[in-house]
Design the sequence.
């Protein structure tokens, strides 16, 4: 009979341990979901900023070509490259 209570106690301890792990995993899962949502919002903002930068670049290029002057777009290209890298980083994080 003593073995029965020892086994029962061991099973109870194991179940309690599993319940604690399950609760921790649920909490961790919720935190990760929240982080994903934050990253998605950041990604949308970066994509919007990239779109604005690309439109500005197109406008400047169009304006320069209308005037017949070559345009140095180094700064704009750097900003676009930086935004593309940030967006790629967000995408990599989501994957």
Sequence:
């Amino acid at each position: 009979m003593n073995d029965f209570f020892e086994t029962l106690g061991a099973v109870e301890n194991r179940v309690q341990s599993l319940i604690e792990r399950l609760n921790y995993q649920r909490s961790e899962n919720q935190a990760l979901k929240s982080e994903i949502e934050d990253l998605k919002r950041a990604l949308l903002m970066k994509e919007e900023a990239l779109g604005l930068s690309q439109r500005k670049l197109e406008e400047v290029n169009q304006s320069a070509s209308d005037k017949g002057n070559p345009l140095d777009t180094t700064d704009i290209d750097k900003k676009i490259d930086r935004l593309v890298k940030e967006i790629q980083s967000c995408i990599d994080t989501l994957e």
